[in-house]
Amino acid sequence: MIPTAVAAQDSQEAPDAARIRQVVDSYMTRLLRTNGDQPRRPGAIVGISIHGKRYFFHYGTARDDGALFTPDTLVEIGSCTKVFTTTLFALAIHRGQIDPNASADAYMPSGYHLRGNARKMTPLELADFTSGMPDDPANLPHVPLERRGTEYYTVKDFLKWVAARNPQTSPPAPYLYSNSGIGLLSYLVDTATHTPWQEQLDRNIIAPLGLKDTLLRPNEEQRQRLAKGHHANGSDAPPWPIFAWYAAGGLRSTAVDMLRFGEANLGHQEVDGQPVSAELIAAMKLAQTPVYRWPHGNDKQAMAWIQNLGSESLDASRDQPVLHPEMVKNGGTVGFSTAIVLNHYKDAAIFIAVNWGGHNPAPTAIAIGRHLP
């Protein structure tokens, strides 16, 4: 049985909070349903910002010691990291530091160059998954997950593989989701801006938005607030390594930080009373701008973000509200499933994190956003 959600703010006992709780409970109960013979149940945190007012609801437990999820519980956000990286890319475009349609070779790190057809690949094709690069590097050693971090498979190993690639056909290629492509994009932006990814992130997004718990490597105090991840079958999952393509999936964050990020992406000029620069808002808008329509359905691909319209219905028998495009990004590690959804029509951001892999909360977040009062 799924525990009833508990709001994480005292102010949420107002009528609007009760209505939101009802919507969230309805969809989260289905998301967290498991087989009756599984000894554990997934836990989750749901964060909702609507018109800048935030609500938090938690389910199950964050750790095996019974600790509950809070807005400040750290989780692995997996590929939600990608939209931080494409925001940095969009900033570099606005600043005239990188040409999105130039050869990616022009921005390769010193000592590395692309070969053959790969030289025709552009930074934008890396951002919108039409570069033809595979999901993960082909030379990644076949070893346990814990031995794939940067201390074993280095950035040099990654860049050597990139430089050695010579695909049979030149891009643009059909859509192919690619961790390695976004990882390479981050190194191109490093070169173009003469600034490492982490420093760019801290200077342009983390500090301005007050994202104090969004980072690659938590400190000791933050590790005490980390949720425990589990495989899809409920068994313990190891911590997600910091891969050489960390800009594609390495960040840890919290529900409150992800709502701050979401509010800025909605175009809010202030987050927690601090101004958000017009430059950052414009870059976030650019990163969300669709580049092409998927071959099937109504989705459009932006810079890692997906624009969704009507293709994610959890219950076709229910009356659907008037549909407007949402921006969606999901993420997953072996131990966590996450999603962030921006519903511009309702001025709402929804973030969900589940401490089990393989749950994909994106459809749930979309449905919650559409049914918010």
Description of the molecule:
By secondary structure, the protein is α+β, with helices and mostly antiparallel strands. It folds into 2 domains: 1-71 and 311-319 and 357-373, no CATH class; 73-304, DD-peptidase/beta-lactamase superfamily (Beta-lactamase). 29% of the residues lie in helices and 14% in strands. The protein contains 10 helices and 13 strands. It has helices at residues 15-31, 81-94, 123-127, 155-164, 179-193, 197-209, 220-223, 255-265, 278-288, 362-371, and strands at 6-7, 44-50, 53-59, 75-76, 252-253, 270-271, 274-275, 292-293, 300-301, 306-308, 326-332, 337-343, 348-354. The strands form 3 sheets. Strands 1-3-2-13-12-11-10-9-8 form a 9-stranded antiparallel β-sheet, with helices on both faces. The chain has a two-stranded antiparallel sheet with strand order 4-5. The radius of gyration is 20 Å and the shape is globular.
